[in-house]
Amino acid sequence: MTLPGSRIHSASIDLSAIRDNAAVLARGAGSRVLVADVRADAYGHGLTAVIDAALDGGAFVRDLDFAASADAHSDFVSAGVALYGLSSDPELRSAMRVSALVVGTKTIDAGESVSYGYTWTASVRTNLALVGIGYADGLDRIASNVGSLLLGGVARRIVGRVAMNALVLDLGEDSAAIGDEAVVFGDPGAGEPAVRDWAGSLGRPSAEIVSVFGSHLPRVY
User: Fold this and answer.
1) CA distance 190 to 170
2) pLDDT tens across 159-186, in order?
3) Rounded to 5 degrees, what angle do the CA atoms 78, 80, 86 make?
4) d(CA 99, CA 10)
5) Closest CA to 88 of 184, 204, 214, 194
6) Cβ(150)–Cβ(65) under 8 Å?
7) Residue 2 in this model has a pLDDT that exceeds 50
8) Whole-angstrom Cα distance, residue 59 to residue 21?
9) I need a labelling partner for 89 at 20 to 30 A (CA). Which of 83, 114, 149, 177 fits?
């Protein structure tokens, strides 16, 4: 199903967050030079755009190998996960937000199962939302029956297996409409789950999560 004029799923990149994070880290580096780590297409955030934002924030970008080893040089300090707001320092802001739209809804009765393999069966009559994001879009299949997305201001659990381009959320007695947005992770300051929360629920490092999503989803700056 296609929703005209809408992106089914996307990774929104806040370049101002990267710029501001670079400024915070540059101040903390003191007399040392802050080197932006932009390996893996800037951790999935987009190499060219991130370089410009990091430079605006006061970071230095040389080459990828140098950035990776900058901490071994006394005059330099490397900014990796912190640059993208993936650490727990409260002064830093997460730069990536991943979301997808509801593309279908359904109500099932107790005893009915969802998704392939039928790994989850409803214990009571419940409402479901089909969301247009799956493992081909970078959402790890380990999230099946484990992870949650924020929909309608409430964390909704993924039920059944994550499919190639879709997953199912259990809404209970609540409802959703086609076109509603479900957030995988985003801005904790706005009440959205942090990327580290999503990564922690799957037992994955935050750097891996953003790098994979960023390489699979369309990026919006």
Assistant:
1) 23
2) 999 999 999 999 999 999 999 999 999 9
3) 145
4) 6
5) 194
6) no
7) no
8) 10
9) 149
The greatest distance separating any two alpha carbons of the chain, rounded to the nearest whole angstrom, comes to 65
**Residue 213, token pair as written in the block:** 């999503």
pTM across the whole model: 0.92
Classified as helix, coil or strand, 184 is strand
How far apart (Å, rounded) are the C-alpha atoms in residues 122 and 35? 51
Token pair, residue 48, equals 């060219």
pLDDT, residue 85, reads 96
Q: Are 176 and 156 in contact (CB under 8 A)?
A: no
Query: What's residue 90's pLDDT?
Result: 85
Distance of CA 170 to the CA centre of its chain: 20
3 state SS of 88: coil
Pairwise CA distance, residues 112 & 126, whole Å = 10
User: Which residues have C-beta within 8 Å of that of residue 48, sequence separation ≥ 6?
Assistant: none
